[in-house]
Design a protein that fits this description.
Number of domains: 1
Order of helices and strands: HHEEHHHHHHHH
Strand order of the largest sheet: 1-2
Radius of gyration: 26 Å
Mean pLDDT: 86
Strand content: under 5%
Low-confidence stretches: 292-297
Structural class: mainly alpha
Shape: elongated
Oligomer: single chain
Number of helices: 10
Helix content: 55-70%
Number of strands: 2
Largest sheet: 2 strands, antiparallel
């Protein structure tokens, strides 16, 4: 994900990083040549005039715009839900660590508070790797062969806190608070797994993809008689709008990926780490620069 400050209208016209233009340039070049072919041949194909005008494109374009809006709304809802879940992970992690620091003495026998906090930090890191299907670094406190390492960490945290309750270090009211925050972390894992394992139905993507490309390929032949030499320019511009909307919908529908418009999980995980370490009075690592990270992808 690329996060940038507000820019003036002129610079916005030429933004490259973070836009989907880079991914659709080959398609636009191809459609430009199709439009040039329609212009040079005066809208004929295999020696026959293609009987198209602007009227059907107006009707089809309206329907296509509604379908694209539905697809983008569905994708954006997944994106927002994913971001809300990760915001919940930050809130619950802070609340859990805060209550542990407040109610458990730093020198309580048999309980390493720093190690506990490190495991809370490891939860978000492991969840990020689980969602991206990447390998976590070797020094994280979890067995390497687990399929659900974030769940394993939450379970271990619950066991550690349960021992404190059994020893009488805290009362059951505090234990109930801890369980509530741990349950929230479990809900975050389940919610993220639901989004990751339930993509938008494939037929929607296929239908939209076919409709957009068919419309863009036919468009120059419908415009050439009415706008003439401007056909390549107008056709490519309209095609850019439709192809970009399709590309954006595809990117934000997978919020845990590494595309420029996916969630900035590296930055979010580092934000959680910095917040929890600061609560413990430990050195805080530098934040992840979101834009610099994704310019490399």
């Amino acid at each position: 994900m690329i996060v940038r400050s507000h820019q003036n209208w002129l610079r916005m016209l030429f933004v490259w990083d973070g836009s989907v233009l880079r991914s659709i340039v080959p398609q636009l070049v191809f459609l430009f040549f199709v439009a040039m072919f329609a212009l040079v041949t005066d809208g004929t194909l295999f020696g026959e005039k293609v009987p198209l005008n602007t009227t059907p494109f107006t009707l089809i374009g309206l329907t296509l715009a509604i379908f694209l809006a539905f697809r983008n709304n569905a994708s954006f809802e997944r994106y927002i839900e994913a971001r809300t879940l990760w915001g919940g992970a930050l809130i619950s992690s802070r609340a859990l660590v805060s209550t542990v620091i407040a109610y458990v003495p730093e020198d309580y026998p048999g309980f390493d508070r720093q190690a506990f906090v490190r495991r809370v930090i490891a939860f978000s890191t492991l969840l990020k790797h689980q969602l991206r299907h990447t390998e976590p670094r070797a020094n994280l406190p979890v067995q390497p062969d687990l399929h659900y390492p974030a769940v394993a960490v939450v379970h271990e945290l619950r066991e550690r806190l349960a021992k404190l309750v059994q020893k009488g270090a805290v009362d059951h009211t505090v234990a109930w608070t801890w369980n509530r925050q741990l349950d929230e972390l479990m809900n975050v894992v389940g919610g993220c797994e639901r989004i990751a394992s339930t993509p938008i139905p494939f037929p929607y993507a296929v239908l939209l993809h076919r409709t957009v490309y068919t419309y863009c390929l036919m468009l120059p032949f419908g415009l050439v008689d009415s706008i003439g030499i401007a056909t390549p320019l107008i056709s490519v511009f309209l095609s850019y709008t439709l192809l970009a909307l399709e590309a954006i919908a595809g990117q934000i529908a997978e919020p845990f990926g590494t595309s420029p418009n996916s969630l900035a999980l590296d930055s979010i995980v580092r934000h959680i780490e910095r917040s929890l370490l600061e609560m413990c009075g430990e050195p805080v690592p530098p934040p992840v620069t979101v834009k610099a990270h994704y310019e490399l992808t």
